[in-house]
Amino acid sequence: MSPIRPPAFERVRRTLAATRRRLWARAGLTAAGWAAAAVGALTLGVVLVGALGAGPWLRPLWLTLAGLGLLVVGALTLARPGWRWRHDDAVAEHLERGLPTLADGLRATVQFGRQWPAVPGSPALVAKLAEGVAHTLEHSDLAAVTPLRAARRPWALAAGVAAAWGLLGLLAPGTLSAGFAALQPPVNAAGEVETGPLVGDLELMLTYPAYVHRAPKTIPNSAGDFEAPKGTRVTLKATTLEPVEAVHLRFGDEAEGPALAVSGGRDVSGAFVVTAGGRWRFAVTTPGGDTQVESAPRRIRLEPDQPPEVLLKLPAEDLALDDLRDVPVVFEARDDFGLTKVNVVIALAADVEHPEKVAQPAVEGRRYAGDEVVDLSVVQAQPGDRIALFVEAFDANDVDGPQRGVSATRYITVNDPKQKHFELSERLREVVDLLVTALADRLEIEFYDSAADLDPLPARIGKYSQSTEKASQALAAVVADMVGDPLTPEEVRLALAGRLGTLEERVRAEARLVEASTAALEAGTRATVDQVNKANERVVDAVEQAIVLVEAMVARLALEDMEAMAEELQAMRARLKDLIQQYKQNPDDKALKARIMREIQRLRQRMDAMRERMAQLRQKLPEEFLNLDGLKKDDVAKGLDKTKDQLAELEKMLEEGKLDEALAALEEMEQALDDLSNTLDKDMQELHENSDPAMQKAISELMDQAKDLQREQKAVSDETEQLKQQAEAELKRMLEEDLKAKLDAVNQKAAQLKQQTDSVDPSNLPRPAHDDLQFAKEQADGLQKALERQQLMEALEAAEDTRQHLRNSDQMSRYDPQARSEQGKLRQGEQLAEQIGDELRDMLRQAMQQAAQSGDPQKSRQLGQRQMQLAERAERLRQRVGEQAQQMPQLGQEAQQRIQQAGQAMQEAGEQLGQGRPGQARPGQQQAMSELDGMMQALQNANRPQRAQRGQDGKQQGDGRQSSRDKVKIPGAEDHTSPEAFRKELLEVMKDGAPKAYEQQVKRYYESLVE
User: Fold this and answer.
1) Which pLDDT band, with edges at 50, 70 and 90, does 948 fall under?
2) DSSP-assigned states of every residue in 862-881
């Protein structure tokens, strides 16, 4: 019976198997490291070669070399170790080298295990050997005997290759991409062969869009990479490397593209338009029907077109304005290619969806610097509104639409001047209380009571003087602040200032008397006390007059404020009507509907403010001022109630979409607001007539005197006109009969002059002389026409103009050899024009001399005496107006200035008539009539209440004047003067003299031509 195999042999076998697997794993890691390093280095080299433009052979070469490399690496580092460690003896030998304690026992145990039980010697000893070897192996660190660090070296090399890849990717990504492109599969997903470049001698011509203002650019021997703005037309020419049947372009990932023209089998031409950046390639169809596509794409880089940049220089920051004045705007817009449109945009901050745009003129080029004066009222702004202002600019991009650039937005807040105006009116009402207190103090003083419990008379006088001084100072402060209040009529301020001046003058006179009589007053001297008492009575009279006037002005300001509010309501109603009509056309416009509702709310607020103002008026004014019809009958309040009810109905109609009914309601509201305004106008006129009857009477008397003066001046003017017409008729007859022969001769010369100027060839003259020659031809033609109409002065002017322009042409052609043939014609024409001018001047002198004998000097002198008498009456009337203006400043200066100018014009006309010159007297008489009309208008204006000048929609425009957005052209000297040569010739004619009776007439006539 054979002995049983010891289990130690199996334990040794398992340890050897584990060691073998570890050795194989180490071999695999080593092989992988070497393979990675070898393939990575090989591919890197191939990629670099491919980036240099290698042909289609590169990919097969790369695959071949990679395959060989892997085979070599596999054979040396994987197959060889695998074959070596297949036997236990080799593994045992490896372990014995790592574990010296085993000596040769492990290999012997392996050998005995294969021979068991036929082992040499004692089986027991062999079994004991196997047990010892197994025990040693189980208690040894086999991982240390077979370390994996042997695989580090190839992996370190692989890491180095990877680092080289990373460095190349950072420094030359294009090279990396180009190299990889050379290794791409030769056939794409569509089954097309991808290969290297298919064309050579590529020439590109870039025709840029018109808006970039750039000349076409040609790129010879191009690689196909270029940069261009969108819309550029690219015209290409190329030669294929091999004969082809057709050529197409491919853009991006497109499977199809535009076809190109092919001639001679290889010459390619065509064009395309750049619509985007990206890749493009050539695709060819070979004679065999195969399709080949370039594997390496060419690049189109889109040149960016930036939107305009807009800089808003002024306003430099947000603004707060006291009124709706014009706002200056200064800005600058820039664009990389060019601008086409620039707008200054304003809108209510609460309604930016509906802006107003002020287009700027002549926008062109890459830079536009502009300035504009913006009228804020175009957006229907109200005091208290916030307005957004900015500038927008559009470039010239006509490829995919103009681009818009916007400046920073400035916000403008409009303060409400009515609030300050209401405060000023309240202060004026408080002055009434102070004046009443001062009046009471003065009426209560006892000048002749010497009771022991009373203060001395000077002390009592000092107390009522203080109250009067306080009232006077308060009134002076209000009048001073009215200067800066645009809502207070100048007439009101002047009336108050005049009454204040009277009061202050009497108070100062009283103070001087009291100061000089202190001792006598303390002693109770009767005569002195009487004087002071009379001075007090004069002050009392001035205080009473001031109270009456101030109360009237308080009422007037309140009425005018309500009248302005009524006008504002009308303007808001009209604006609301326009908005509703717009909404009717666009019922889905929610923003417009919201704006309408805001307008209704604003209108309601204005009505509430007007009602509150009226309530204040009724509470604070004396009874006599509440007797005005509108207030007494409560017509104003009824009108407001009716309008407010209509507004509520209007809002309801809008919510229900009844737009036609809403428009009809607005028409009814217009009538109600008109009735409201008419009522307030009547109240204002009644208050004005009743508040200062003395002024009404004085103005009426002045107007009567002015009417009488007008009537008599008209009579003198009519008789003067008859004398003038007689003289002019005689002058015309002589020109038509006695001078006919001379006129015919001048007509012949004028025809010769026209023929002479037309014969000059402008092509032989220098360019600067062309305009003067053209003007000379036009004036020569005008000369003939004037002579046909027998307009000698017009003909004289045309002759002188012709001569001057021919002279200019001659002078500018003096040094031009080509013009020599024409210079003789120019000089002959100049001489002919000069002769015509001399003959015309001679004819005019003869006509004047003969006409002087047909006048009526006696009649003219009589009219001159009557005219001088009227001038004296005008001077007396001027003095009267000046006296009244001192007492009533509201008359102003216009009436006085008008009558003064009328008197001066009358005096000048009288002097001309006295010298027998009725024609020269007529301008002065006409001016006198015009000035008298102006005086009557000024007196009429003073006789009616003058409201503060407010802007549109009831809003004040700055200093009370309407603002205008029209730019004013400042006329130059050329707009008002005749040619210098013509003026000189006319002065020479004057030196020749004229009949004495007509010297001034001739002088005036010539002067009128050169003004």
Assistant:
1) low
2) HHHHHHHHHHHHHHHHHHHH
Beta carbons of 468 and 539 less than 8 angstroms apart = yes
Mean pLDDT of the chain, nearest integer = 77
End-to-end CA gap in the chain:
160
537-579 tens-digit pLDDT: 898 888 888 888 888 788 777 777 777 777 777 777 777 778 8
- For 838, counting Cβ atoms within 10 Å of its Cβ (0-12 exposed, 13-18 middle, 19+ buried), the class is middle
Strand-strand pairing, 193-195 and 291-294: parallel
Question: CB neighbours (10 Å) of residue 964?
Answer: 11
DSSP 517: T
Instruction: Say which amino acid occupies 980.
Output: E
Task: For residues 966 and 372, give the distance between their C-alpha atoms in angstroms, rounded to a whole number.
Answer: 11
CA distance 267 to 116: 88
- Quote the DSSP letter at residue 944: S
Three-state DSSP state, 903: helix
Long-range contacts, 441-445 (Cβ 8 Å, 24+): 441/467, 441/468, 442/468, 442/536, 442/539, 442/540, 442/543, 443/540, 445/536
Contacts 24+ apart (CB under 8 A), 927-931: 927/901, 927/902, 928/713, 928/870, 928/874, 928/902, 928/903, 929/710, 929/713, 929/714, 929/717, 931/898, 931/899, 931/901, 931/902, 931/905
Chain position carrying tokens 């007053």:
521
Q: Is the pLDDT of residue 991 over 80?
A: no
From 928, 848, 859, 855, select the one nearest 720 (Cα to Cα): 859
Measured CA to CA, the distance from residue 484 to residue 480 in angstroms comes to 8
| CA–CA gap between residue 534 and residue 949 (Å, rounded) | 43
DSSP per position, 344-360: EEEEEGGGTTS-EEEEP
Residue 453: strand, helix, or coil:
coil
Burial label for 723, CB within 10 Å (0-12, 13-18, 19+), is buried
Q: Under DSSP, is residue 956 helix (H, G, I), strand (E, B) or coil?
A: coil
Contact 679, 629 (CB under 8 A): yes
Q: Which amino acid is at 928?
A: A
CB contact at 8 A, 201 and 223: no
From the list 291, 304, 296, the residue with the least C-alpha distance to 280 is 296
Distances (CA, A) of 458 to 59, 309, 439, 524, 537: 128, 79, 18, 10, 16
Strand 319-321 and strand 410-414: pairing? parallel
Confidence at 87, pLDDT banded by 50, 70, 90 = confident
- Distance, in Å, from the CA atom of 928 to the CA atom of 874, rounded to the nearest integer, reads 10
Tokens of 123: 């089986």
pTM beyond 0.70: the answer is no
The pair of structure tokens assigned to 850 is: 């003969």
Higher pLDDT, 295 or 262: 262
**Encoded tokens for 606:** 């204005």
Edge-first strand order for the sheet with 327-334 is 309-314, 327-334, 367-374
Number of alpha carbons in the 13 Å side-chain half-sphere of residue 917: 23
Q: Check the CA dihedral 844-849-853-859 and report its sign.
A: positive
Give Dmax (Cα) for the chain: 189
Mean pLDDT to the nearest integer, 292-311: 89
In the structure encoding, which two tokens stand for residue 357, read together?
């745009």
Tell me the angle at which helices 490-516 and 526-585 cross, rounded to the nearest 10 degrees: 160
Alpha carbon of 778 to those of 157, 509, 682, 764: distances in Å? 99, 78, 62, 19
Which amino acid would we find at residue 165?
A: W
**Preceding amide of 117 cis, omega within 30:** yes
Task: Note whether 548 and 467 are within 8 A (CB).
Answer: no
List the structure tokens of 483. 């200067």
- pLDDT tens by residue, 781-822: 988 888 887 777 788 888 899 889 888 888 888 777 887 888
- Cα distances (angstroms) measured from residue 143 to each of 11, 135, 139: 17, 17, 12
